Every structure is written in structure tokens, then in C-alpha cells.
Amino acid sequence: MLEPSNNDELPPIPAKRYFTIGEVSELCGVKPHVLRYWEQEFPQLSPVKRAGNRRYYQRQDVMLVRQIRDLLYHKGFTIGGARQQLSGAEMKQDISRSRQIVREVRKELEGVLKILKS
Asked: What local confidence, expressed as pLDDT, does residue 54 receive?
């Protein structure tokens, strides 16, 4: 994730569903050709391609680009190191998402149990 100090220099991500490569370039402080290169190097980064082979990035893609930028530019990782870091981070995120889902389901079941007892 981005450190708060690095996040302050980037503009907030607007509440939109899709972003063009130019918008992502401005939001992340990275040139469009760098974004196209990163798409080849990071399999997690795969924007939707529509008519005319135009790229449309989603919010999670923009956050991923910011994370890649932080790893490469601020933390000094190589492309390979950043790729490994992101793979490990994805596994941690999956585990934390699973735990969060379990907590939410448990809360809901406890609520149902309360209703059934009354």
C-alpha cells in the first residue's frame, strides 16, 4: 500500500467506473508509455480493452498502478522485486478478505440467532 507521505502528492481518485490511460497517467504521475510497459511486466495490471484497442482502467487498476509506482520509485524495488512483492501482497489481501467475510457472516448469523431466540 502507499505510505501516507507518498499518497499526499497524488490527486484523489474520482468516483468513476472507468479511466482512460491519459487520466490514469495524471492520477498516478506516470507517463502513458510507462503504463503500457507495466501492463507487460505485471500480470495483475490488465485494463479492459474496447473498440480501437483503447484501454479503460478500473479503480483497482489505478490503485495498483499507484502501488507499483510506490514500490519502484519510492521504495527502490526492481521490476522483478516489485512483481514478487505484489504477488505476496495479493495473497495477504486474499487472506484478510477471507477473514473479513468470515467475520461478517458470523455477525449476521449471530443476529439471526438473536432473532430466533426472541
From this structure: 92
